[in-house]
Amino acid sequence: MAPPPSTAQKSPSPSQPSGKSEVSDLKLQLRQLAGSRAPGADDSKRDLFKRVISYMTVGIDVSAAFSEMVMCSATSDIVLKKMCYLYVGNYARCHPDLALLTINFLQKDCRDEDPMIRGLALRSLCSLRVPNLVEYLVAPLGSGLKDGSSYVRMVAALGVLKLYHISAATCFDSDFPVMLKSLMLTDPDAQVVANCLLVLQEIWNLEANKSEEASREREALLSKQIIYYLLNRIKEFNEWAQCLILELVSKYIPSDSNDIFDIMNLLEDRLQHANGAVVLATIKVFLHLTMSMNDVHQQVYERLKAPLLTLVGSGSSEQSYAVLSHLHLLVMRAPMLFSSDYKHFYCQFSDPSYVKKLKLEMLTAIANESNTYEIVTELCEYAGNVDVPIARESIRAVGKIALQQYDVNAIVDRLLQFLEMEKDYITAETLVLVKDLLRKYPQWSHDCIAVVGNISSKNVQEPKAKAALIWMLGEYSQDMPDAPYILESLIENWDEENAAEVRLHLLTAAMKCFFKRPPETQKALGAALAAGQADTHQDVHDRALLYYRLLQYDVSVAERVVNPPKQAVSVFADTQSSEVKDRIFDEFNSLSVVYQKPSYMFTDKEHRGPFEFSEEMGNLSLGQESMDNTPRYDESDKDLLLGTSEKEENGAPSANGSTASGYSAPHDYNSSLVSLSSQTRPEPATSDPSLPKHSSHGNIAIDDLLGLGVPAAPTTPPLSLNPKAALDPGTFQRKWGQLVISISQECSIDPQGVAVLTTPQALIRHMQASSIQCIASGGQSPNFKFFFFAQKDDKSPSYFLVECIISTAAGKAQVKVKADDASASEAFFALFQSALSKFGML
Amino acid sequence: MLQCVFFLSDSGEVMLEKQMTAHRVDRSICSWFWDYVLSQGGDPSKILPVIASPTHYLFQLYRDGIIFLACTQVEMPPLMGIEFLCRVADVLSDYLGGLNEDLIKDNFVIVYELLDEMMDNGIPLTTEPNILREMIAPPNIVSKMLSVVTGKNSNVSSKLPDATASCIPWRKTNLKNASNEVYVNLVEEMDAIFNRDGSLVKCEIYGEVQVNSHLPGLPDLTLSFSNSSILNDVRFHPCVRFRPWESDQILSFVPPDGEFKLMSYRVKNLKSTPIYVKPQLISDAGNCRVTVLVGIRNDPGKTIDSITVEFQLPFCVASANLTSNHGTVNILADKTCSWSIGQIPKDKSPSLSGNLVLVTGLEKLHMFPVFQVGFRIMGAALSGLQIHKLDIKNAPTQPYKGFRALTRSGEYEVRS
C-alpha cells in the first residue's frame, strides 16, 4: 500500500495531516497503553488503532509505529485484532526485521480457541510475505489444514499458495500439495474443496514447465474422476467457486458424446443462475464441449441465446457491457441465429455510448431480408440523435447493411434523405457511404448523383467526406453538369486545403474529368498539376508529376492508367481475420472478448492464460503484409494494451489478413517496426480501450535514443555498428535464406542475466543499446528465441543476421551468425558476445 | 484474480485501498485512471467498465459517487471482476445504509473487515449478505447503543456462522427468534420505446419476485403462478430448485433469512401501455414550438402517480421558455428539462408548451430530444402475472403471508 513516494507525489491537502508529528504523537500514546490492563484500555486502543489505520488509508506512512502496534496487540478484542492484522500485513514487507516481532502473537492466535481468530491469524501470518520467516509458517499451516473448523482449513489452503509464492521449495518439502489433494477429494466443506483446487491449479500450472511430475499432476486435475466429483457437488459451492470449477471443466476433454451430454445436462440449470459470471462460465463449457459436434453446436447457440439476452437486460450497465461483448462475439459468428431477436439490440436513450456502439454493430451483423426494413428504420431514428458519435455510427451502420445487399433500394432512399437533413456531420458520413455504395452498385449512380450534385462543397469540411465528394465529381463528371466548375473552384483554393488526401483526390478527379470533358476542364487540370507539383507533400507532388508526364507521353495511355473501366466491387475487405476471431472465441469468458483482440495481442507472456500459441521454433513466418507495405514507423502507442511488445497495425485495412505468429516484433523506434501479428480494427474510435501515448515502452525507447552509443563507446570495438540500422522483415527473411552460416557457437549467459530474462523484451532492449536490433522474438521461459540484426556503420552497409536461442535453464545461448561480409563476422560475433555477457549486470 | 481494489471519490481522491495479493499495486494507478477519466470527459459513469492501463487491466464500477476500481494483470473472466464489484457495492450499501464518501470514511474499519471476508488472495469468497452479517455485525444504532450501555465493544458475534459449513450456504441452520412472516413482492419495470409517429417500437416488462422472509427453522416454500407461461428469460436465486420449475413451473425453495431476489423474469411483446406522451416540435426561422401532451391510454385500474417527463434540450437551443397547465417545469443547468406531473387530474389533460430559441444561424432544429417518462403504479403488475399460491412446509405455526405488486417505468422513451 502506501509506499512513501506516493505520499510524496501527492501534495498534502489541508484536510490531510502531513504525517510526522502525528505519527510520533501516536507512537507515544500507544506506548503508554501497551502494558495497560486498566478497564477501558481497549476503548482507547481502539481509537488509536482507528487513527493509525485511517492515516494508512489516506496514504500516510505510519510504519514508524510498528513496534508500538505490535506491543499493543495483546488483546482479546477481535476488532482490535483485525485492525492490528491489517496494519501488520501492510508494513511487514518493508520491515522484515520488525515482522519477526509479530510472529509470536500470530502463532499464539493460531492456537486460539475461537476458529475465527485462528483463521484470521493464519491468514495474516501467511500474508506477511517475508521470506526469512517462512520457517514459522510451516507448523501453523500444517495444523491449519487439519483444523476442525472449515473456516480455518479454507484459510490454510490459500495460505499454502501464499507460502508457495514466497518459497516454493518449503512448500514442496512440507508435502503441502499432497495434503491439499487429499483434502480436495475428501473435505465435506465445499469452500475448502474449491480453495484446494484453486491452489493446486495455480501451483501445477507454474510448475508444469519445470517438472514432468507437475505437468502430470496438472493433467490429473482434468481427469474424468475429478471433474465428475466436482460437477456432482457443484450446487454446494458458492457462485465464485462454481466459476472456478466451470473454468476447469471447460478445459476437460470429454471421452465420448455421452460424456458431453451428461455434463451439459448436469449444468443446464446453471444457465439460469443470478450471477452473470456463472452463466458465462457455463456457456463457455457448453461451447467448448460441443466444438467438434457441428449440429449440436448450433443447438447450443439456440439454447444459450435466451440466458445471454436476459443477462444483457438485467443488471447494471457495466454488467450488460461485459455480457454484450460476449454476445457480440456470438452474434458475429452466427448472425442468422439472432436475426429474430433484433429488438433486443435497439438502443435505449440512457444506454452509455459504449453499449450503444456494440448494439449498433450487432444490429448491422444480424440484418437480413426479413428484418432489414425494421432495423434500418430504427437506425435512421438514431441519426437525429443528440449523441453525435452514435448518430455517425448509425449512419455507417445503415451503409454497411446496404453493402450486405438487402433492400438496397429503400436504403439508398434513406441515405439520400440524410443528405437533405443538412447537418454537416450527417452529410459527411453519408457522402462517404454513398461513395462506397456507388463502387458496389454503379446502377444507382443516377439517383445518387442527382442529390449529391446539389450539395455545396462549401458545406463539406471533413477530409474523408470531401475526398468522397471529389471522387464522385471525377467519376461521374459526365452526369453532373457543373462538375468541372466545382472542381475548378476547389482547385483555386488549393492552398487552403490542409488534408493531403483531399488534394490527391482532387488531382485524380481533375484528370478523370478532363478525359470526359476536355475543353471545360483543361484549365482547371493545368492549375491542379501546377499546384500539385509545387506541393510540399511528397505523395501529392509525385502524383502530380506522374500525371503530368503521363499526359506528356500519351493522353490515351494516361486515360487507360487513370480511368480504366471499373468493375463493381463485390466484397469489401473484412477488417478482422477469421483466425483472430477464432482465437478470441477460444478465449471466451476472458478479457480478450471485451477488448476484441486475442490475449497474445495484449497480455504479457508471463501472464498469459492456458491458451498458448504453438510456438514453432525455427519456422519464422513473417507478416505477408510487410511485403507490400513499407515498414511503418508507428510512434503512437495507441493500440497497445498494457504496453507489451505485441503491436497491431493501426493503418489501412490490409486484405490479406494477418499471420498470427508467436514471435513478437520488438519495440524499436530507431529502426523499422514491423508488426507480425496484425489486426486492423474498423475504427480506432474513441470508445475503444485505446491507451494514452505515454506507455512505459515509449519512455524506454526515448531513453534508448538518448543513451545510444554510450554503452558501446567505452569498449571501442574495431567494428562499429550503425545505431540506426533498419531492415524490413521481408529482406531479413530473404537474406537469411540466401546467406550461409558463418559462425555457429554456444556461449554462456551470466546468471544475473538469466534472472532478468523473464520476457524477451528485457534482452531486446539491452541489445539495442549495443546497436543490435531485434526483428523477431518469441518463446517463453525457459526457452527464448531471437532474431537480431545489425548493420556495419560505414559506406557499404552490410548486415549481420543472428539467430539466438537461449535456454535460461541451462544458462546457455546458441548463436548462429550470417553476414553479408563474412570476413567481419568474427569481429561482430565478439561484439555480440560481449553485449550478451553484459546482460543483467547493471 | 483481482490484485487490488481501490475506492475513489468522484473527485478522484483515493478513499481506501485493499491489496489482495503479493503483487502490490501502486497507488499511482489511481492517478492514471483519473487522468483517463478526465480525458474522457470527466464523467465516471460514462467510462468503459473494463479498461487497460499501461500496467494493469482495470475494472471500474460507478455507484452513488464512489468509483470501485479493481486491478489485475492476469487474464480473467471480465464478468467475475464486474460482478464482484457490484456485490461489494451492494453489500456496503446494505451494511452502511447507503453509499457515500462520508459513510465509507466513517466506517472504514468495517469496510476492511468486509473486504477481508469477501475476497482472499484475489479470489471472491463469501459475498452472500446474510452470511456476512453473521460474521461482521452491521454498524447500526442499536449496536452502538448497546456498546455504550454494556461497555462491550465487539461488533462481531464471537461465533462463526454455521452456514459456512451447512449444505445450504445461504441460510443459517437454526434461526430461532424470527417473527414468522413472509412477504412476496412483484416489482415490475416497463421498458417501452415509441417512435415519433407514436407507434410502439418495443414494450417489455422486466420483473422481479422479491421475498422478505422471517421464518424460523428450515422452512420449505413453494410458490406458483396462475399464468407462468407468459414468463421469459427467468433467472433464479441459488436457493430455487431447478427441477420443479422445469416440470411444473413451481418455485420450490428454502429461503435465506431477510430480503432477497427470488427470481427475475421478462415478459415480452406487450401491446398496452398505461400512459401516452405526445410531443410535437415544429421549427421555423430560428424558433421551435414545443407541445407535449400526456394522458392515460389504458387505465390499469389503479392510480398512476409520480408521473414525470424528462428530456434533454439539444445543444443548439439557445434559450427555452416552457410552461405547463399542470405540475412544475424545471430547466436545469445542463439543459435537462424535467416536468413533474404527479397524478393526472380528472378534469384536464396535462400539457406542456413553449418556445425554444435556436442558436443564431440555425433555421431549423435537426436534432430531436428523446422524452423519458417516469411513472409508478402501486398494486398492479402490468405484465398480468398473478401469484396462485404460496405454501409453507416445515413451519411450526402457520406464518403470516403478505403479497404486494408494483409497476414502475423502466426505460420508457418517446422519440420526437
Fraction in helix of chain B: 10-25%
Please count the beta strands of chain B (DSSP E, at least 2 residues each). Answer: 23
Secondary structure tally, helices of chain B: 7
**Judging from the principal axes of the Cα atoms, what is the shape of chain A?**
globular
Query: Which shape of chain B, going by the Cα principal axes?
Result: flat
**Spatial arrangement of strands, main beta sheet of chain B:** 11-13-9-8-23-21-16-19-18
Backbone CA Rg of chain B: 25 Å
Query: Gyration radius of chain A, to the nearest Å?
Result: 33 Å
Largest sheet of chain B: 9 strands, mixed
Instruction: Estimate the strand proportion of chain A.
Output: under 5%
The secondary-structure element order of chain B is EEHEEEHHHEEHHEEEEHEEEEEEEEEEEE
* Helix and strand composition category of chain A: mainly alpha
Distance between the termini of chain B: 46 Å
* Helical stretch tally of chain A: 40
Using the coordinates shown, work out and report the CATH topology of the domain at 613-842 in chain A. TATA-Binding Protein
Strand content of chain B: 35-45%
Weakly predicted, low-confidence segments of chain B: 141-166
Mind describing the biggest β-sheet of chain A?
A: 5 strands, antiparallel
What does this molecule look like?
The complex is a heterodimer of chains A (842) and B (416). Among the domains of chain A are: 328-441, no CATH class; 452-567, no CATH class; 576-603, no CATH class; 613-842, TATA-Binding Protein (2-Layer Sandwich), CATH 3.30.310.10. Residues 1-17 and 605-717 of chain A have low confidence and may be disordered. Chain A is mainly alpha-helical and 842 residues long. Chain A has a 5-stranded antiparallel beta sheet with strand order 1-5-4-3-2, with helices on both faces. In chain B, 17% of the residues lie in helices and 42% in strands. Chain B is α+β, with helices and mostly antiparallel strands and 416 residues long. Chain B is built from 7 helices and 23 strands. The two termini of chain B are 46 Å apart. A 9-stranded mixed beta sheet of chain B has the order 11-13-9-8-23-21-16-19-18, with no helix packed on it. The chains are: A mainly alpha (842), B alpha+beta (416). At the A-B interface, α3, α5, α7, α9 and α12 of A face β2, α1, β3, β4 and α2 of B. Chain A: Pfam families: Adaptin_N, B2-adapt-app_C. Chain A: Residues 653-662, 669-681 have a biased composition (Polar residues). Chain A: This is Beta-adaptin-like protein.
